[in-house]
Amino acid sequence: MNKKNAIEDNYISIDEAAKYLGIKTVTLRNWIKKKPDLPAHRIGKLWKFKRSELDEWIASGKSAE
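Predicted structure:
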């Protein structure tokens, strides 16, 4: 894995993930509750995401369910 990929695969915040997906943070919070296959990771009290996992989730078509 080159350095660029390593940086892109760092965890991002729920606000950054929502922006990355082009949705509001409140929508993403609802999805965390309603979509069990959403690749969200709870770290302490915070939700964190990896762009690569979000990309895979979208590509799988599960985001449309």
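Summary: The chain has a mean pLDDT of 89.
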